[in-house]
Design brief:
The protein is mostly helical. Helix content is 69%, strand content 4%. It has 17 helices and five strands. It is globular.
Length: 431
């Protein structure tokens, strides 16, 4: 066998070996951190977990847990799971998803116990409120991640999710206040997202401008435009142009389902925008893998030349699906204003579009997995505010950083090797 054939094969084996050890190394770092926090720095306090709200139809008794004893058990279990991960890696077997889920859940529960046990104001943590707030924070991330999945499955990197969310929030607040109708505001949010998507699609698909640069420029453009109109129009006349409380979607619980402990308040006591997010995830997954539309969408993102040979107009398919993603992201932006009754503010999305893009990567370009990743990032965002209320020993600055730290760790270390669509980010020029 020639050297030219041996070297690529050796390089491939080395690449697989590096990838296979990435997850166990990440496990080891987290296990070492758990030993430091849950054992070395643990307090002798007792953490109390309140599992249901005071007015819930089904009441669960609060759970008292000794911080040091429970933390030691969790740390030992994490070390054992890390050992399992290393054994699997040594045998060249991938770490199963269930192992990662169990590992992550154990660490989260251990961290909550440690933080509540060492809190300075109260040792009681409202778990039901924490989970209910998680979904509310994750709603715009879910919409943004769906927009990213659709765009990238079609072969276009949608960096402009941040701009679409922000413009959607602006359009929803403005139109809903002027018309007094939340439905008009929701429609305006979708249109605002489509407008941003049209610009992205025109430059990246029609004129072959670099998609990353176009998306970043659009985010800056939308931030500047909304800031200008906010100062020139909304600040002086908030009652006429920026009062979503006059036309907001109210929460309405689903009878029976909303009474399920923990999960009921989280998923079934939402506004219309929240319920639409759940429906959008399921519909997008079904359409992507079970319909002709999904097959065409995936074909232009994986092999546009082959799609073109069977009669699919690649650039038209990409254009309209990027626009569809923009509409979805715009509706997600509406959750910041008419979904909560909060007035529009400058740069109120706070980088959520970039976190949604990370959820796309972490979710491996799958709607269901991306939505679960969005829930993870929503949980970390809400966790910071909850722990600040109980006087957590974790510095408040770090708690503000927590969702972004989790984003970086998820994309760089825990997701392992993730393959994007083959033609993602590549313009198609018909020969």
């Amino acid at each position: 066998m020639s050297t030219d054939l041996v070297n690529p094969m050796t390089t491939s084996i080395q690449r697989v070996r590096l990838v296979s050890w990435k997850a166990p190394i990440g496990y080891a770092v987290i296990a070492a951190l758990s030993l430091l926090l849950f054992v070395g720095l643990a307090s002798d306090g007792v953490a109390t977990f309140v599992l249901t709200e005071a007015d819930a139809a089904i009441q669960l008794a609060p759970v008292d847990v000794g911080a040091r004893a429970f933390g030691t058990i969790v740390a030992v279990l994490l070390v054992l799971l890390t050992g399992v991960a290393f054994v699997l890696a040594a045998r060249r077997r991938p770490v199963p998803v269930w192992l990662t889920l169990v590992f992550g859940l154990l660490f989260v529960v251990g961290f909550l116990t440690w933080a509540a046990g060492a809190a300075t104001q109260t040792n009681t943590l409202q778990v039901a409120g924490l989970l209910a707030g998680t979904f509310g924070v994750a709603v715009p991330l879910i919409y943004g991640s769906l927009a990213g999945v659709i765009g990238e499955r079609a072969g276009v990197v949608n960096i402009a999710i941040e701009g679409q969310l922000l413009f959607g929030a602006f359009g929803a607040a403005l139109v809903a206040t002027m018309t007094g109708s939340p439905w008009a505001g929701l429609f305006a949010a979708a249109v605002a997202g489509v407008l941003v998507a049209f610009v992205l699609a025109a430059f990246s698909i029609r004129y072959f401008v670099d998609q990353i640069i176009t998306g970043v420029v659009l985010n800056l453009l939308v931030a500047g435009l909304t800031s200008f109109f906010y100062s020139a129009l909304m600040t002086g006349n908030p009652d006429q142009f920026n009062d979503p409380r006059l036309a907001q979607f109210s929460r309405f619980p689903i009878p029976g389902l909303s009474e399920i402990p923990l999960l009921g308040p989280m998923f079934f006591e939402q506004t219309l925008i929240g319920y639409l997010a759940i429906v959008a995830v399921l519909v997008t997954w079904f359409a992507l893998y079970r319909t002709k539309w999904g097959l065409r969408l995936r074909s232009v993102g994986e092999h546009p030349t082959a799609a073109d040979t069977v009669g699919i107009n690649v650039n038209r398919t990409r254009f309209w699906n990027v626009a569809l993603g923009g509409a979805i992201a715009g509706i997600g932006g509406a959750s910041y204003t008419i979904g909560t009754g909060v007035a529009f503010g400058e740069n109120m999305t706070g980088g959520a579009g970039y976190i949604a893009l990370a959820a796309v990567i972490f979710g491996q370009w799958d709607p269901l997995k991306a939505a679960l990743a969005a829930l993870l990032f929503g949980f970390t965002s809400n966790l910071g505010s909850q722990l600040s209320l109980i006087g957590s020993p974790v510095p408040s600055v770090f708690m503000l950083m927590l969702p972004y730290v989790v984003t970086v760790l998820a994309v760089a270390g825990l997701v392992g090797r993730s393959r994007p669509p083959a033609a993602d980010g590549q313009p198609y020029i018909k020969s």
